[in-house]
């Protein structure tokens, strides 16, 4: 795992975007980009930087496929707080990913069974696209990844989950009161997330410090779903100073962030 610490949210956004582009180059092998997309406030700066890279012709998402991490159950696609709508506004319209190439788990259907079946099909559609090359992630203050709340199976696949009470409280700011926050969602599973070529997780602010410390340096445990990052071969965690505050190995991360040069190799 690489842990990269930016001094400001803008620097975090720039570092994260460069790691997304490098991850696509590394795991895309010349194919069209396949991106996993998180909603929430953490990756907004990263999406802005990707949009800048498109303007500067360093990136092109016109042929890309995007796979959302999760979707609420029970609110229509057209609802302004649906994750489809949010990603169309915040990602498709800024980085030029065609809205018809945005895949989102199905949160509305005639029955629970139909939602479950669509969730299984979602994993199949990721595989059909050749797998997610780079998965963008945030982390909940309770350590959740996607909506895999504490207690989630470490090898879970896309499925229905109950939202934790504190997640509903955190997300009430987007709705007219907590009673309007859905109780359930469909989320990529932790096993689904681990299948991506590279994971780029962004966290900003003191409210994420405990979750980041537990995910990066704590035991691998369903109690902190973010700790599955430790099982991934190419996970990059990009945080600001406040979110890094609980990390014990800070000095090592700073040393390791320096590029290996030919001089280093000659010295040893
Ligand atoms: C978003 C998602 C969540 C968020 C997390 C952090 O699709 O699945 O895991 O990444 O709740 O949210 P923010 O970034 O708003 O603090």
UniProtKB/TrEMBL annotation:
It comes from Glutamicibacter arilaitensis. Its EC number is 3.5.99.6. NCBIfam families: nagB, PRK00443.1-4. It is an enzyme of class 3 (hydrolase). Residues 8-235 form the Glucosamine/galactosamine-6-phosphate isomerase domain. It comes from the Bacteria. One of its GO terms (molecular function) is identical protein binding. GO terms for biological process: carbohydrate metabolic process; glucosamine catabolic process; N-acetylglucosamine catabolic process; N-acetylneuraminate catabolic process. This is Glucosamine-6-phosphate deaminase. One of its GO terms (cellular component) is cytoplasm. Keywords: Carbohydrate metabolism, Hydrolase.
């Amino acid at each position: 795992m690489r842990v990269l610490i930016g001094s400001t949210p803008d620097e975090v956004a720039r570092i994260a975007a460069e790691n997304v582009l490098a991850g696509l180059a590394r795991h895309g092998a010349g194919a069209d980009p396949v991106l996993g997309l998180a909603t929430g406030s953490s990756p907004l700066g990263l999406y802005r930087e990707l949009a800048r890279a498109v303007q500067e012709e360093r990136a092109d998402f016109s042929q890309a496929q995007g796979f959302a991490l999760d979707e609420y159950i029970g609110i229509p696609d057209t609802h302004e707080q649906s994750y489809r709508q949010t990603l169309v506004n915040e990602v498709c319209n800024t980085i030029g990913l065609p809205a018809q190439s945005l895949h989102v788990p199905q949160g509305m259907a005639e029955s629970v069974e139909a939602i479950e079946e669509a969730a299984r099909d979602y994993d199949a559609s990721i595989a059909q696209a050749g797998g997610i090359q780079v998965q963008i992630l945030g982390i909940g203050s309770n350590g959740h990844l996607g909506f895999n709340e504490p207690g989630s199976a470490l090898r879970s696949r896309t499925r229905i989950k109950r939202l934790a009470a504190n997640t509903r409280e955190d997300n009430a700011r987007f709705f007219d009161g907590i009673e309007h926050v859905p109780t359930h969602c469909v989320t990529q599973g932790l096993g689904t997330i681990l299948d991506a070529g590279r994971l780029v997780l962004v966290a900003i602010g003191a409210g994420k410090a405990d979750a980041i410390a537990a995910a990066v340096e704590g035991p691998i445990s369903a109690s902190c779903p973010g700790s599955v990052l430790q099982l991934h071969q190419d996970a990059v965690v990009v945080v600001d100073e406040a979110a890094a505050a609980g990390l014990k190995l800070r000095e090592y991360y700073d040393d390791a962030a320096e590029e290996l040069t030919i001089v280093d190799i000659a010295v040893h």
